[in-house]
Amino acid sequence: MLDARTELRYLKGVGPRRADSLRESGLETVEDLLYVLPFRWEDRRAFRRVADLAAGDPDAALDVRVVRSRLIRTRRPGFTIFEAILADASGSVRSIWYNQPYLERVFREGRRAVVFGRPSLDRYGRDVVLENPDYETLDDDDAEGIHTGRIVPVYRKLAGLSSRVQRNLIWRALGSVGGPLAETVPAPAASRHRLLERLEALREVHFPPPDASLVDLDRRATPAQRVLAFEEIFLLQLALAVRRRGIREESRGIAYEVPDALRTRLASLLPFRLTGAQRRVLREIGADLRAPHPMHRLLQGDVGSGKTIVAILTLLVAVENGYQAALMAPTEILADQHYRSLSRLLDLKGAGYRRAFLAGSVSGAARRRTLEGLAGGGIDIVVGTHALFEEGVRFRRLGLVVVDEQHRFGVLQRAALAGKGCRPDVLVMTATPIPRSLALTLYGDLDLSVIDEMPPGRTPVRTVVRGEADRGRVYERMRREIEGGRQAYVVVPLVEETERSDLKAATAFAARLRGEVFPDRAVGLLHGRMKGEEKDAVMRAFAAGRIDVLVATTVVEVGVDVANATVMVVEHAERFGLSQLHQLRGRVGRGPGASHCVLMVGDGGTGSEARERLAVMAETSDGFRIAERDLEIRGPGAVFGTQQHGLSDLQFLSAVLRDPSLLEAAREEARALVAGKGGADRARRLLGSLRPGWRRRLSLAGIG
Ligand code: ADP
Ligand code: MG
Predict the structure, then answer these.
(1) Which of 116, 216, 483, 532 has the most CB atoms less than 10 A away?
(2) Which of 475, 487, 483, 588 is nearest to 541 (CA)?
(3) Distance between CA atoms of 557 and 559, rounded to whole angstroms?
(4) Coil vs helix vs strand at 158
(5) By the 8 A CB rule, do 216 and 208 touch?
(6) Mean pLDDT computed over 298-326
(7) How far apart are CA 134 and CA 157, in angstroms?
(8) What angle do CA 298, 300, 303 make, to 5 degrees?
(9) Mean pLDDT, range 508-518, rounded to an integer
(10) pLDDT (tens digit per residue) in 569-615
(11) 529 Cβ partners below 8 Å, 6+ apart?
């Protein structure tokens, strides 16, 4: 018998070498290994008979031996076909794999294998063939009942180990761990939610009982999977709850005063009336500002919903209370724009706040002056990029920080920034509409405010999906807008910021527009490789109307505000996620005139599928609905970026998104545990006793 905390090298089948490479993959103990979960399951309860296979049947599992095989080298250079004749007692079937010449060594004559795939007709339309089926070779001494005759788990390759080897190890580990595992979800909570003991749950997830539903397994919705999902969310929420409690109760922040006179005066700075939603979130923020603990709030609102003004008013409250305030944006262009919004507003009424701008491009005497002003207290408000929080930047009395476009900042940066002041209040703004369930998962330590109403007078952007054949008409429409005094964006995708060829494509595209399509108009180019000042110059020219058509890579995604631009054309729209497209579309429709968004889709294979996906954009302008669809299609990792959230480690995120009640329940339990007497200590002890793999995940997420 082994203990779950036993090091893996003591598990039979793991020698010192394997133990090393498993450790490199983050697995140290038997328990760590048990939490390597299958990514799919294969139904091998009953194998199909080869003789019964018919083209068009669903995926079939076959238990076969290799009769013979050969590698065919075709005339196309580098293109190979590997062919194996596979037989069971009923007959034989041909199976082929493309470009996998190494299979020669795998499918040796006489070898036993399980293959899994969809039977089709060969290219002569005569015989049934399996093309690129999944396969697994078995040794005759592989214990029956593990790899066959059941629903079988399939694992991603890990530490150089095949799925079959992992299955063997995990089977052995499950068999050799004695009693129940140490408690993670406390017993009362587990029984309230009728959760299986977790070793039992793990056993059923790896080796499901014979009556398990494959559909439920794939949806991560079996009772055993719900146990693990609950556990995962519970521990994450527990860590967040501990952190939140630390912020709210154990650290003293600034209790600002927000008298009515101040509110009236600040409101009078505005050239418009605040929307109801803006007023509501300002009340929520106001309550945080008055409270003695530091604010830690996420402000969510669709592109154009008016977050900036809310941020500026919040900054001014801090300044009126005698503190310094900082507004940080992810790019210099955006920081500059915020700085100008701020300046416009303040200059309007001669409000007399002392302000500065700080970014990588600010150097020499200007930089020195700003640093002195921040350290000496001569500057009230500073707007900038992450340069604000580099070494060497000191504040005299930093009281409030607003971070724009949260999804570009990691949790770790949030922590670094909070360390700069005397526990400043932090307001994080994001235009990425995050479904509530996900927001709670990711930002469980933040309070949430949502602006769910647009300023009045916006006309919805008319959105269409177009193909290559329509290009002429698209350009005509652009020309009409430009002749009417409007401006247009054309966004071209960069697959990778580093790929020169993409950049060349963007440059060439701009050259063609300039030379052939709009020779009589000013066409500008903006891309990520340009220096800060160059970008700024182009952006300024566009904002001033000196550029009619701005060809840009995705740098325009983050918040530029040019009300006179009424056309957004996105090239290769199929390469963007829906949420990104929504952000891009938000660049137009900012003024009184009608605006257009044209999503250009390449013709060919993926064209029609892409059109279907993009149709959502034409149907709705609701960022939350779009984000939900995007999450369904691409998954959270792709939508939000994985590293910064440790999201890739959340195995059950999709289950959570589908069933938010599970998340709510786990969150309630976590908060209740921390809230009780001595709860924070108990929670800390529990978190501290987690297996190493878990502790690492939580600390990666910045909440250990
Ligand atoms: P966000 O930052 O949420 O994308 P902004 O704060 O940039 O949105 O606001 C978009 C535009 O709407 C700006 O031009 C801003 O001046 C304007 N705006 C904001 N609030 C209002 C309001 N209550 N009434 C009218 N216009 C508004
Ligand atoms: Mg904005």
Answers:
(1) 116
(2) 487
(3) 6
(4) strand
(5) no
(6) 91
(7) 13
(8) 145
(9) 92
(10) 999 898 888 888 888 898 898 877 789 999 999 765 556 677 778 88
(11) 497, 503
What would the two tokens of residue 475 be?
């350009």
Alpha carbon of 570 to ligand 2 centroid (Å): 20
Task: Please name which of 520, 495, 497, 522 lies closest in space to residue 510, comparing C-alpha atoms.
Answer: 522
Look up residue 150 and give its two tokens: 């059941």
32 CB contacts (<8 Å, ≥6 apart)?
8, 26, 691, 692, 693
585 in Cβ contact with 524 (< 8 Å)? no
What's the mean pLDDT in 412-421? 56
Q: Look at residue 703 and tell me whether its pLDDT is greater than 60.
A: no
Model pLDDT for residues 533-552, shown as the tens digit of each residue:
787 788 889 989 999 999 98
Phi, psi of 71 (to 5 degrees): -105, 125
Q: Whose CA is nearest to atom 15 of ligand 1?
A: 306
Q: Could you tell me the two tokens for 8? A: 């893996």
HEC per residue, 11-39: CCCCCHHHHHHHHHCCCCEHHHHHCCCCC
Minimal-distance CA residue to ligand 1 atom 16? 306
Short-list 119, 111, 60, CA closest to 87: 111
Residue 639 has pLDDT above 70, yes or no: no
Q: Which residue type occupies 103?
A: L
| Sequence letter at residue 213 | S
Q: Which atom of ligand 1 is nearest to the CA of 307?
A: 3
Q: What residues have CB less than 8 Å from 312, skipping those under 6 apart? A: 327, 341, 342, 345
433 lines ligand 1 (CB under 6 A): no
Tell me the domains of the chain and their CATH numbers: 46-149 (2.40.50.140), 260-290+306-430 (3.40.50.300), 462-620 (3.40.50.300)
For 372, the 3-state DSSP assignment is helix
Kindly state if the Cβ of 304 falls inside 6 Å of ligand 1: yes
pTM for this model (two decimals):
0.67
User: What is the Å distance from ligand 2's center to 408 Cα?
Assistant: 13
Is residue 155 within 8 Å of residue 166, measured between CB atoms?
yes
pLDDT digits (tens, 9 = 90+) for 434-492: 776 677 666 666 788 989 888 887 778 999 999 889 999 999 999 999 999 999 999 98
How confident is the model at residue 643, as a pLDDT? 43
Ligand nearest to the CA of 335: 2
pLDDT of residue 316: 92
